[in-house]
Amino acid sequence: MIHVRRTAERASPTFEEAITSSLLPEAADCRKKIAEVEAEKASEYLRNQAAAEAEKRALLEWIVYQDRAFETSAWPIINLLGR
Predict the structure, then answer these.
(1) Measuring CA to CA, how many Å separate 36 from each of 19, 27, 40, 41, 43?
(2) Full-model pTM
(3) Distance of CA 29 to the CA centre of its chain
(4) Which residue in 32, 51, 75, 83 has the fewest CB atoms around it within 10 Å?
(5) How far apart are CA 77 and CA 74, in angstroms?
(6) pLDDT of residue 59 exceeding 80
(7) pLDDT at 78
């Protein structure tokens, strides 16, 4: 018959367990950090997209304004040349 020697459960972790648990992050912590980084990248992408759209809109408005200003200022000259 084989005798199995039972040891009492340790209340405190071993040195290796203490070192490992303090140096290596938990999987849940890693997933949380990854999610935070991905969310920040998504926010940055959306901010950049919004800024690009705003710049495009402003340029189009400027072009339309310049075109209207040209038409208004050019009419007297066009009328003189047309006579």
Answers:
(1) 26, 14, 6, 9, 11
(2) 0.54
(3) 20
(4) 83
(5) 5
(6) yes
(7) 67
**Pick from 48, 47, 28: which is nearest to 36 by CA?**
28
What is the C-alpha separation between 40 and 50, in angstroms, rounded? 15
Residue type at 36? E
Question: Residue 6: left (phi > 0), alpha (psi -120 to 50), or beta?
Answer: beta
Letter for the amino acid at 11? Answer: A
Longest Cα separation, the chain = 124
Spatial CB neighbours of 25, under 8 Å, sequence gap ≥ 6? 33
pLDDT at 26: 83
- The residues near 21 (Cβ < 8 Å, ≥ 6 apart) are 13
What gap in Å lies between CA 75 and CA 12, rounded to an integer? Answer: 91
Q: What is the mean pLDDT of residues 58-77?
A: 81
